[in-house]
Design a protein that fits this description.
binds magnesium ion, binds guanosine-5'-triphosphate, alpha/beta, 15 helices, single chain, Single alpha-helices involved in coiled-coils or other helix-helix interfaces
Length: 333
């Protein structure tokens, strides 16, 4: 057997094992696609390809919110509620800011004690990475793997910083923004762009002393959302009050999600969004691949540096420079 076919056999074994619910195989498969080593890339690509026909049947939900808003506690409450109803829940994260070498995972695990031990749940912290693009790409691929492994609800969590919300919104069916009962002040601080991505807003910690504030914040968010153009025809973003610690509002969140799915499925927006996301993913890969090719080829990257210098000085127009570099690329192939 040559090297290629033995590798193909290994990938097939790995895929077969994860499909029948072997958690270690799933973890190993994700580790493989997260590997940034060039030599693992062909195997990783094969694996994602093998998983693709078995993926796509899960409900993909993005969760975003500022640090401390209660994301992990919500995932614990919502996730265990779902597994209690027969769902299999995978939790993935996109967090380019952290190296995730210990501290944060530990923090998450202490907030998700039950879910972390639940045989019907799978929790995977954010892959390490320097660029958001790299982290997001690996999370997208992991999503296909957990779906192939039979998880029917995928929660993708991100901290509300920078561009990570957009990256997550681009890979999920429904985007949920978590906000704290801080109300007015916080509303000012939250970037409008994030609220525009929201299909559902969850006001967390709606319990005890914070209950009143949560109601007030809920009304303010509802008023603010009312002024925004709906993302999808027939669906305006809802606001839900939730107490993860008391388990209140969890069932309502799920019924919102189900109504969202029904509404979008009926209008065709559900499939359209999935299709658009697949094409956008291809375009992202192409863009990144092209850039990598440009910088990896010594001759072209030298040319690129020269062009950049000329563009920086203002002696060469950027479109002209781009054309010249593309001509080099075309000559190469
Ligand atoms: N009263 C109350 N406190 C909550 C609730 N949910 C979370 N908290 C508290 O809020 C704090 C932050 O909760 P986390 O779940 O760790 O928040 P997070 O958004 O995951 O935070 P990061 O991972 O740091 O971004 C903790 O002290 C929780 O106990 C809730 O429903 N009610
Ligand atoms: Mg957390």
């Amino acid at each position: 057997m040559n090297v290629h076919s033995s590798q193909a056999a290994k990938i097939k074994d790995l895929k077969d094992a994860l499909v029948v619910g072997d958690r270690r195989a799933l973890a190993k498969a994700i580790t493989l696609i997260e590997s940034s080593r060039n030599k693992d890339e062909p195997a990783a690509t094969q694996l994602v390809n093998a998983a693709l026909p078995l993926s796509g049947r899960a409900l993909r939900i993005g969760l975003s919110g500022a640090p401390g808003v209660g994301k992990s506690t919500f995932v614990e409450a919502f996730g265990t509620w779902l597994t209690g109803r027969g769902h299999r829940v995978a939790v993935l994260a996109v967090d380019p800011s952290s190296r995730r070498s210990g501290g944060s995972i530990l923090g998450d695990k202490t907030r998700m004690v039950k879910l972390a031990q639940d045989p019907n749940a799978f929790i995977r912290p954010s892959p390490a990475g320097t660029t958001l693009g790299g982290v997001a790409r690996r999370t997208r691929e992991s999503m296909l793997l957990v779906e192939a492994a039979g998880f029917d609800v995928v929660l993708v969590e991100t901290v509300g910083v920078g561009q990570s919300e957009t990256a997550v919104a681009d890979m999920v069916d429904m985007f949920v923004v978590l906000v704290s009962p801080g109300g007015g002040d916080e509303l000012q601080g939250i970037k409008r762009g994030i609220m525009e991505l929201a299909d559902l807003v969850v006001v967390t910690k709606a319990d005890g002393d914070l209950l009143h504030a949560a109601h007030r914040a809920g009304a303010e968010y509802a008023a603010a959302l009312h002024l925004m153009r709906p993302k999808f025809e027939g669906w305006s973003a809802q606001v839900r009050l939730v107490s993860s610690t008391e388990g209140k509002g969890i069932a309502e969140v799920w019924s919102d999600i189900e109504r969202f799915q029904t509404t979008l499925t009926r209008s065709g927006a559900w499939d359209r969004q999935r299709r658009d996301q697949r094409v956008a993913w291809l375009q992202t890969e192409l863009r990144e691949g092209l850039l990598a090719t440009l910088t990896e080829d010594p001759a072209i990257s030298a040319e690129l540096a020269k062009m950049e210098a000329a563009v920086a000085k203002g002696t060469l127009a950027p479109p002209q420079a781009a054309k010249a570099i593309l001509a080099h690329l075309a000559a190469k192939t």
